Amino acid sequence: MSSKKAAQVLRPAFNGLGMSCIRSPRLQYSARTLSSQPSRPRQCTPTTRYIVRHSSSDSKTGDVAKTGLYDLHSKFGAKFVPFGGYSMPVQYSDLSIVESHNWTREKASLFDVGHMVQHEFSGPGAEAFLQLITPSSIASLPTYSSTLSTLLKRETGGIIDDTIITRLPDKFYVVTNAGRRDADRAYLEYELKAWKEDSSNPEVEWKTLDNQGLVALQGPLAAEILTQALDPKAAQTLKTLYFGQCMHAKIKNTDAEVLVSRGGYTGEDGFEISIPPHATAAITQFLLDSAKDELRLAGLGARDTLRLEAGMCLYGHDLDETITPVEGALSWIIGKERRANGGFHGDSKILQQLKKKSEGGGVGRRRVGFIVEGAPAREGAHVVNETGEQIGTITSGCPSPSVKKNIAMGYIKDGLHKSGTEVEVVIRGKRRKAVVTKMPFISSKYFKAPVSK
């Protein structure tokens, strides 16, 4: 067992799937399926196509898969909905969605995110390959550290998917979205084929961890609960594990090694735990039994309101292939040396967007937050100015249980994206007052490394 780690303070990870957003009084949900570094960008045809191939592990139309925790969810009275190709719990019989949301903010909740796709990239070319298809500084990422990144479209720099990339001693661990399973597979197959066609490129090995369990333990009591569940050596290491770091560990009374990553999708302190298939149900049950008064299961309904309060994106709603990292307010994932040297897909467009307007740079739209008066704004609602001209679009929105206001996320014309800008949102034919607001809507509570002076 290894419990090594390396310090790397990173921005919040939001590679997780929520819903967008709770529609009262009925629950309506949707998941969209669109699905050594080279010295210069690779040349390619003007329109690269990523053909989606299906295999036995894909979620075909009408074929809804189950995670390794399906029976456990049923035991706890889960209400299931199809999501990302899986039958996923949206809530449980013991708590309403709002109560589950508040429980997470006050104590701790356990989310099944086993529908996400877990990958491993290894071999001498893995680092350079990931540097090609993402804009992040993978080369300088310390061992046992993670970063948010995006898979980029060749010609445009559009976001194929958002992802978390973790460097382990002998490989990279990468998590992508369930709703993008087919699209991501086609993309990665295409990119790896092109990589291998260049005989000068070092070898890359790629595999998906089929049926691997993944749970997210989130909330102010998460660290205390997990510390009690780990063996003594790992429990000591956990105390100094900062946001964006990970470690291998063993849960008490088990022989299964898990990967514990400090981070999550809710804005709370927490951990995502990758578990071997044979141990997923037993370890999850053990965690629940170890903290019966503090820990409860939570579903996708609460996960969505929590992630929106935390300013986290949901792919297919707040991000898609037409949006670049700069437009999506994700410029911070583009490493300093990447800005200087490029060498990633879509770099010419993305690096131009990063420049000042006086240098021909900038973008036409930007992702921002909104506080909306009156009725909550839903996805697709138009943002307008005082004359009724459309200046933006809502991509996610819901009443916030924590803020006690209607919050939303969306895109607005560049120049109108400053916090405090007053606008209006058209909701059911009526124009409601709104104001552009900084995100996150709540203060993040990540356990970060001290800032060196």
Task: Describe this protein's structure.
With 453 residues, this protein is an alpha+beta fold. The chain is built from ten helices and 19 strands. Strands 10-11-12-9-3-13 form a six-stranded mixed beta sheet, sandwiched between helices. Helix 2 packs across helix 8 and helix 5 runs antiparallel to helix 6. The two termini are 34 Å apart. Belongs to the GcvT family. It catalyses: N(6)-[(R)-S(8)-aminomethyldihydrolipoyl]-L-lysyl-[protein] + (6S)-5,6,7,8-tetrahydrofolate = N(6)-[(R)-dihydrolipoyl]-L-lysyl-[protein] + (6R)-5,10-methylene-5,6,7,8-tetrahydrofolate + NH4(+). It is found in: Mitochondrion.
Summarize the structure.
By secondary structure, this protein is α+β, with helices and mostly antiparallel strands.
Task: Sum up the structure in keywords.
about 25% strand, 2 domains, Gyrase A, domain 2, globular, about 450 residues, GcvT_C, disordered N terminus, GcvT/YgfZ_C, GCVT_N, transferase, mitochondrion, alpha+beta, six-stranded antiparallel barrel, Elongation Factor Tu (Ef-tu), domain 3, 19 strands, 10 helices
Blueprint (SSEs and pairs):
Layout: H1 70-75, E1 79-83, E2 86-91, H2 97-106, E3 108-112, E4 117-122, H3 126-133, E5 145-152, E6 159-168, E7 171-176, H4 181-197, E8 205-208, E9 213-218, H5 222-229, H6 232-238, E10 246-250, E11 257-262, E12 270-275, H7 280-290, E13 295-298, H8 300-309, H9 336-341, H10 347-353, E14 365-372, E15 382-384, E16 390-399, E17 406-413, E18 422-427, E19 430-437
Parallel strand pairs: 3-13
Antiparallel strand pairs: 1-2, 3-9, 4-7, 4-8, 5-6, 6-7, 9-12, 10-11, 11-12, 14-17, 14-19, 15-16, 15-18, 16-17, 18-19
